[in-house]
Amino acid sequence: MPATQTGNRFLERLARGPAIVADGGMGALLSAAVPRLRTPEEANLRAPEAVVSLHVSFINAGAELIETNTFGANRRKLGHHFLEDQLEEINSAAVKLAREAREVTGRDVFIGGSIGPIGEPLASRVRREIFAEQAAVLEGRGADLFMVETFYDLEEVVDAIEAARSASGLPIVALLTFDEGAETIAGVTAAEAAQRLRELDVAAIGANHGAGLLAALAALERMGKDGIPLAALPNVGLASLAGGRVIYPHAAPEYFAEFAAHARDLGARVIGGCCGTTPAEIAAIHSAVEEERKPRAPLQFDERELVVSLGEEQRETGLSRALRENEWIISVQLDPPLGGSSVGLVEVARALQESGRVGFVDINDNATARAGMSSLMVSATIERECGIETIPHLTTRDWSVMGLESMLLGSHAEGVRNVLAITGDPPEVGDYPGARGVYEIDAVGLTQLITNLNRGEDFNGRPIDGPTSFFHGVAVNPNADDLDLELERFQQKLEAGARFAMTQIVFELECLDRFAERLGGSWPIPVLVGVFPVTSYRLALRLHNEVPGIVVPDDLQNALQDAGSEAAEIGFEHARMLIAESRRFAGVYVVAPFRKPLRVLELL
Question: pTM, whole model, 2 decimals?
Fold first, then answer.
């Protein structure tokens, strides 16, 4: 059974006052001091003297609470660095090193066992098991309390608190990370967090990490000081990258002293720092607390003004209108240039538009993992110069969620409205062997992101300055090797808000009918059928044998082989037949022949 908190010396000190001064950014400083760490927590084993030295520096600067170097030392995070088998050793060593620093200085400081978020979506039961395992080790080695910190998801921090409580009776300080508007990236306000956390058995609640000192103060102000003790341990400010290193701004100690004065006024009983804060800043906080400093300037928080886009920005796309009015769609798929000029592609798009036979062009996004011109940027150029609407593909392989959102908002401002959300081929198949894709989200996540933007929210549900009006589609592969998985993912795409679908290239339509039967008998959204005029037997073999999800029927392969030098005509005739048969679907997209893209007009 967990030990009782009755008579706990940390709780007594918290109630007695004055504010407890905590330490600063352990992980960032260790990463800078010890080269080639896979994770800061590895320093507990590889460079224990550096850990002790840093603890001692913070204690000598006036810290009364030091945190163990275990922020990312849960089994899941350690597993990403192949260190999960050393979980107990890393966490045990961290507490031992903190205790050594306490003995070296001869100061009676508290040791807070640092517990950070897992950093990936997991079931609540799994998360609790992970948090409880780490908490048990930290208490077993002699931690005085738990610092459950840097969370942005309210349910995850609740899991961490209750898991720690199930394993131990030690006091818990619960901290979330907020932006300047006192919200987490998951859209949880400081007021909402405080209301929920007050219901739990915690010693203090507050803000750490985040967007800097003012962001932490804004969160404290909204949490309210009439109730549970508050805590503030912010970053020194916004970080930057220089020479592969993370660099934090050099905030003047006076700035931290003023921060501490404001934090005390707002009800903070634990005050310290996070990433970028050094013993110099902690010394300034200590002096301000010891001197009971009063703020020298009033604290003001400005509300962000929201500007809602109206009128032209919310227009319906030509593709959306055509599908709504049951017009049959013809789009031609083009590859962006691999160089720095879009002149040739623009000329092709203009010729397609002037032909009167093509309504749209869809633009690949680094197909087969070869780096070419941005599909979104070149689409904006084509629409502006040619007057033909585009359907750019957007892959999640090359962008973080933040990068995807940024590109989408910029392309929306340039008039691009249709987007096909895809996951993307792995980099290993392209020009960059050894490279790794980003893949923070997949096509399902990208579809949800675009749906959120259309609602006026970002990926995490936080409001943006104005909603977008994207018409977004998804890919579907009726010939997938694992058809059950493809069906499941397609359903997820529908639930995420997909408005239309574009198939993988097909050479017969029966596969689409079989897929529709598995969906319940019909397609729930409009479908554009992918058509590729195969120009040679060799190309047919490569498509059939090397490209996942493409099936070239045996009779077509045999016909192409028998045709010899006339194979291209066979391939074009088959494509014409497929286009004609696709009239029962919403439309087609036709892959333009390589190096001779305008030959596609012969099919139309």
Answer: 0.65
